Amino acid sequence: MAFISRGFRGKRRDETTSSRVPPGQHTVNDFPVLSAGPTPRPDLAHWSFSIVGEIDAPRTWTWEEFRKLPQEEITVDIHCVTKWSKLDTKWKGVSVDTLLDGVDTAAEFVVAVSDGGYTTNMPLDEITDKKAWAVYEYDGQPLHPEHGGPARLLVPHLYLWKSAKWVRGLKLVKEDEPGFWETNGYNNHGDPFKEERYWGD
Amino acid sequence: MILKWQVAKVTAITAETPRVASLSFHVPGWQGHLAGQHVDVRLTSDDGYQAQRSYSIASAPEEKGVTITVERLDDGEVSPYLVGEVRQSDSLELRGPIGGYFVWKAGDPRPVLLIGGGSGVVPLMAMIRHRALAGSRTPVRLLYSSRTFDDVIYRDELDRLAAAGDGLAVHHTLTRSRPPGWKGYTRRLDRPMIDDVAWPSEQTPIVFICGPTPFVEAAATLLVERGYDPAWVKTERFGATGG
To answer: Distance (Å, rounded) from C-alpha A22 to C-alpha A201?
Structure first.
């Protein structure tokens, strides 16, 4: 052991869940809120979700249309780069596979775009094949604005900043376009189990 | 730029309030930081168990070393160690600085509004210290909410800096007490308080808000309702992250 903090003992993890908690994380029972600016409160009458960019015919759904898309219930662990993880969170929403069904694209990357101007980027194949959703319910309730309602992305295998709150669409792109936190010191990829927190990790 | 874990030696510990202490570190090869950034702290027990937390940097870029200010959360894992167990000349591991958004540079010409709740004042203090040490005269207003008079972090230093009369104004509010002779507010942050303290939106200020989530939500919402462009309002939250 390279370094020991004199007198530090810490609170040990429950062994049954420790393999689910990535390095440097600790579990919480509440649901902390983090965001870079004021919480947007869009009018659902004018809300839409769009797929744009490298796609022959851009797709757009109104809130009503979006809510009629096939729903999935998801129970996953989530991991925030600020060190907390929350196990067995329950969500309801639309699979990104559903949103992209039948789309033929040359894009290899995607940028999620949110109300308020927030963006985050990912390889396209990291949000397809049952890996990501656009969710509008948390724990049986409409998603609260502080947590990204009316709808947020949910990409549970990456740090939570990739799960863009207040998401309004996906832009399909050929070249990777680093997003908000990715250009502000945070890792371009963000795999919690590899502890890809910051630039250079 | 790779952020490596670095061994940091405690050079000073300052009790700020009964529950809050500042820890100053000597970090060999520290690359410097911007006001508003944070560091990660990692503790390792003798059997290899590790815990990490993030803490805002309280010191200005112009100061030597790095100072963090930590509030002790009684059910926390790391903060009771940092506030209570750690002694001068102990070492721990740090990496940083982290974060490129919630930062202020003294060259920014816009008037500044800082709104802090509890230990959310810490990154704002780094900005205030940076302003002073850089010799900036940029007008800055701080609205700072604490529970009681004894919970006010950096109280004397804020008094002293505001008394210099060079453009820093400090407005306190206490939410749980009203000491005799107190001239500040004695209530939770609300619209009249924001109306008193906030710059007119025509002055296109820059705003930094840090505190617990309900506090940050309230402050940011009031400012947007007042006509502030959301893009001017930068927020950082803490609390309930298991300190």
So the answer is: 15
How many cross-chain Cβ pairs, A to B, lie less than 8 Å apart? 117
Instruction: Give Dmax (Cα) for chain B.
Output: 58
Residue A134 burial (10 A CB sphere; 0-12, 13-18, 19+): buried
Count the residues in chain A: 201
Measured CA to CA, the distance from residue B208 to residue B234 in angstroms comes to 5
Cα–Cα dist B82/B88, whole Å: 11
Q: What is the pLDDT of residues B36-75, one digit of tens each?
A: 999 999 999 998 899 999 999 999 999 999 999 999 998 8
Q: Is the pLDDT of residue B239 over 80?
A: no
Residue recorded with tokens 């001239």? B183
Interface pTM, i.e. ipTM? 0.92
Task: Provide the residue type at A177 as one letter.
Answer: E
Asked whether B138 and B108 are in contact (CB, 8 A), the reply is yes
User: Which residues of chain B neighbour A11 with C-beta distances below 8 Å?
Assistant: 51, 77
Task: Determine whether the interchain pair B81/A5 forms a contact, defined as Cβ–Cβ distance below 8 Å.
Answer: yes
Nearest by CB to A37, from B50, B100, B234: name it: B234
Whether pLDDT at A5 is above 90 = yes
Cβ neighbours of B92 in A, within 8 Å? 5
> Which residues of A are less than 8 Å from B91 in CB distance?
3, 5
How far is A37 from B192, CA to CA, in rounded Å?
22
CA-based nearest distance B50→chain A, Å: 7
Chain A partners of B48 at a C-beta cutoff of 8 Å? 1
CA distance A97 to A87: 24
| Paired residues of B68 in beta bridges | B23, B57
In the chain, the amino acid numbered A130 is K
Taking the C-alpha atoms of residue B195 and residue A165, their distance in angstroms, rounded to an integer, is: 29
Determine the distance in angstroms separating the CA of A144 from the nearest CA of chain B, rounded to an integer. 13
A14 at B interface, C-beta within 8 A: no
Binary contact (A32, B213; C-beta < 8 A): yes
Interchain contact, B237 vs A32, CB within 8 Å: yes
Q: Which pair of tokens denotes residue A176? A: 């990777």
A39 min Cα distance to partner chain B (Å)? 7
CB A170 within 8 A of CB A107: no
**pTM confidence score:** 0.95
Instruction: Report pLDDT digits (tens) over B207-223.
Output: 999 999 999 999 999 99
Q: What is the model's pLDDT at position A200?
A: 93
| Sequence letter at residue B85 | E
Distance from C-alpha of A13 to C-alpha of A197, rounded to nearest angstrom? 21
